[in-house]
Amino acid sequence: MTILRAPALLPALAGLLLACRTPQASGPAPAEPPAEPAAASAPDDDPQAALSGLPLMGLGPAERKLLAEYARGEYCYCGCPHTLSSCLLHHQACKHAARMVGLAAAVAARPGATVDSIRRFVGRYYSSFDRRASIDLAGFGPQLGEAAAPVTLVEYSDFTCPFCQAFRPTLEAFVAAHPGRVKLYFKPFPIESHPGALDAALAGEWAREQGKFWPMHDALFSAPSHDLEALAGVAEALGLDASALRDEVASRRLEARIRKVQDEGRSVGVRGTPTLFMNGRLLDLPENSTTWLEFTLQDEEEWLQNHGGWARD
């Protein structure tokens, strides 16, 4: 069981979005924007005009029309009193509209996308800023990254999951590229149908007690097998007691700890691996990529700078 991945947004549009850093301001956005006519000044048959010249290469005519219809009917998340298309056409001071449309474009590019599916996805993303899970990190250190970093990532992951293995280099490189801004905690969520998943999670938690969690974490993700003897070999290679590792896995002493993590994860929305939270906010991104991690980090930092709200344009 894994998190499904979506097509990547085009580099030109992604680059534009990452350049749209918002200015600081104070005060929360109004909950309901004033009503305005549903149709912006762009005609219905001119999606490029409605989207004010955003780079939409790679989106066909049907996807552009879909995106334009969405943009004409949705208000900018920052609270300004304009639809997205109106913002893009007439309110260029607003930096948020292009970001919101970029997120929508990634959904519009998916097969079978509809205005409703775009609206649901984008709505979930922005509503997540007000829906923060309480995740217990006591005993799950050390973190990767600086302890004082204001943004905390928590990954629920399985050492035997190929999607977790593929995501690991991206996630760790992202943390390393943002020193002082981001830190990462790992919580074990073994998938029962994966051979060796529980034993690998037990080995990881045992190594955490030995002060060797991250070396064991890296070795477990790189190991070709996760049977007991393979785990013992990993421990020995790290200078740990292979016999003690065998006894630990056989005893299942730490299984209750892992089951508690799984119960917690399910209660906060974990349905597969990898699942990532940012300051308690469940991340549902178009794909697990550096581009989208950077996108949502910028949003999180803006939210923090404005004490739980968006900057006003």
List the helices and strands and how they pair.
Blueprint: H1 11-19, H2 47-50, H3 61-73, H4 84-90, H5 96-108, H6 115-127, E1 151-157, H7 162-176, E2 182-188, H8 197-209, H9 213-222, H10 228-237, H11 242-251, H12 255-267, E3 275-278, E4 281-282, H13 290-305
Parallel strand pairs: 1-2
Antiparallel strand pairs: 1-3, 3-4
Helix pairs in contact: 1-13, 3-5, 3-6, 4-5, 5-6, 8-9, 10-11
Structural account:
The protein has 313 residues and is α+β, with helices and mostly antiparallel strands. The chain is built from 13 helices and four strands. Strand 3 (275-278) and strand 4 (281-282) form a beta hairpin.
Largest beta sheet: what is the strand line-up?
2-1-3-4
Structural class: alpha+beta
- Residue windows where pLDDT falls under 50 for at least 5 positions: 1-12, 19-45
Shape: elongated
Total domains? 2
Largest sheet: 4 strands, mixed
Number of helices: 13
Q: Return the average pLDDT rounded to an integer.
A: 87
What does the radius of gyration come to? 22 Å
> Helix coverage percent of residues?
40-55%
Strand elements, count: 4
Strand content: 5-15%
Can I get a quick summary?
With 313 residues, the chain is α+β, with helices and mostly antiparallel strands. It has 2 domains: 11-131 and 287-305, no CATH class; 151-267, Glutaredoxin (3-Layer(aba) Sandwich), CATH 3.40.30.
Please give a handful of descriptors for the protein shown:
313 residues, alpha+beta, Glutaredoxin, 2 domains, 4-stranded mixed sheet, 13 helices, 4 strands, disordered N terminus
